[in-house]
Design brief:
alpha+beta; 2 domains; two-stranded antiparallel sheet; elongated; binds iron/sulfur cluster
């Protein structure tokens, strides 16, 4: 838990600019942290943000606060993924991992970024909506590790009311089910108190095209203006 020592704080307000969620505020002449909304990312206590040394991490003594820290601090490496951060390497390394097969799409719902944050109960709503649409949750995703039931997308009860900097709901669906995913997102986006972006991972066919792109017009979605393409990394490990 990040705490501010009022005896050391001189009220300079520098730390307010560094908190990515804006949960440090002034209480009179002293800075204080809104602990309910703090996600334990420790940005404020790194790199000498406070020249007075007034901010420091204190011992975290609950599972929920530990979860906030491990999923919100980008310097922590997750046992479930083997990489720092709250997602997996899937989007960038499918040529190596082969998680998204031909005829399937990888779906990444990146929630809470930038600078908004996300309650896990809202991630659960998205996970449950996508489970109904047929999403097969990604095994190595941190969110999957806190699911109570992978068929429904329900999350372990004691984690539901924790808050994170961001989280990714990840998995795969058959390409034919992409319209169901979009329909589910259009309903659930009205029920959550945060922002999200949709990332789609697609294998290309023999002509170098991603066939799912032809569905976008019919779904009322714009052609994506940006993407990540793996080139020049060597021969793919997987071809199926
Ligand atoms: S940077 Fe340090 S001294 Fe300045 S307001 Fe924040 S806690 Fe107080
Ligand atoms: S730990 Fe992160 S969320 Fe909490 S006050 Fe510090 S910078 Fe803000």
């Amino acid at each position: 838990m990040a705490i501010i020592n009022p005896d050391l704080c001189n009220g300079c307000k520098v730390c307010l600019m560094y908190c990515p969620l804006g949960v440090i505020r002034m209480d009179g002449e002293k800075a204080v942290i809104d602990q309910e909304n703090c996600v334990e990312c420790y940005v404020c206590s790194r790199n000498r943000v406070c020249a007075k040394g007034a901010i420091s991490p204190a011992e975290i003594n609950t599972k929920g606060r530990t979860l906030r820290h491990f999923l919100s601090d980008p310097t922590e490496t997750k046992a479930a993924t083997g990489v720092p951060g709250r997602g997996t390497e899937e989007s960038k390394t499918n040529d190596v991992t082969g998680r998204v097969k031909q005829g399937h799409l990888g779906i990444c719902i990146d929630m809470g970024r930038p600078g908004v944050g996300v309650w896990i109960r809202d991630a659960e709503k998205v996970a449950m909506a996508l489970a109904q649409a047929g999403l097969n949750f990604e095994e190595a995703s941190p969110l999957t590790a806190i699911l109570k039931d992978r068929r429904t997308g329900e999350i372990i009860d004691e984690m539901r009311n924790e808050r994170l900097l961001s989280i990714i709901v990840e998995g795969t669906v058959p390409e034919a089910d992409f319209p169901k995913v979009i329909a589910a997102l259009r309903v659930v986006e009205k029920e959550i108190d945060t922002v999200f972006s949709l990332g789609v991972i697609s294998r290309v066919d023999a002509t170098g095209r991603a066939p799912f792109l032809t569905q976008l017009d019919g779904l009322g979605l714009p052609m994506p203006m940006r993407g990540k393409v793996n080139t020049g990394l060597g021969r793919p490990f997987v071809n199926d």
